[in-house]
Design brief:
about 25% strand; Nitrilase/N-carbamoyl-D-aminoacid amidohydrolase; 14 strands
Length: about 300
Amino acid sequence: MAQSLDSPPQTPAAEKVRVASVQYYIRPIGSYEEFRGQVEALVGTAADYGCRLVVFPEYFTIQLLTTLGETQRPVSQQIRDLAGQLPRYLETFSELAREKSIYIVAGSIPVLDDDDVYNESYLFAPSGEHGVQGKLHITRWETEDWRIQPRDRLKIFETDFGRLAINICYDVEFPELARVAARHGVSVLVVPSCTDERQGFLRVRYCAQARAIENQLYVVHSSTVGSLPRVPAVSLNYGQASILTPSDFAFARDGILAEGLPNQESMVIGDLNLRILLESRETGTVLPLRDSVRSEEVAERTEVVAL
């Protein structure tokens, strides 16, 4: 999939786009075909409702561990086995994107590269082509238990409705990434997440809301719900999918275009007005994206004052 970093577009590629965010229910399954059936039904539902983009959560593919044998083995070994499912995963989502003529952010899956394991999120286009964004900041349990390594590059994806970027879960807690994306003309930030308890979920949710306000962009946050017994970090899940907006008169009153009920299997759908978004960056009540340049200049002149 083409990626470009030339000057940000001055007009939206499309005026409006309908998007869907999945609260994906993780549960033990017996076969890959069962996983595919669950995914196919969700993509089909999003397409039936006229969505141009559907987003799945981080590590929802962990569900496939229950099809790969004994889950009592060290989880770092199981994650490597799961990486072996990448070819089928790519085939499945490429076919679904083509069949339904829809963009799919297919959550994330562990990927082996030169014997290191990475957490990668794939974006599939209606053509079936795909791009990939690796997770850039790795949480403690990913590093210490799963032996996941970080990637080192932020990608900007061109779509037929405008520019899109992906911050995988913990990545959204680092404001520099979303700021760079917004300055490159990104209007939709996608945040696939997997959190096991409420505090972790709220860290991601509050930061996603802040990124929407700071950068005057839409954030599509997708979460895992349900449980996968005996798999560390996903043995329980706390999640709530949402579509978040800037906080100004042209948008949702509370900056929440749509959200699900916590911890229930569901999908939330909303219409993103991209024209209004770009206009707000020029004529909004406040202009945080434009004015962020000054905060950086001020930060360079920081002084420590002893009293």
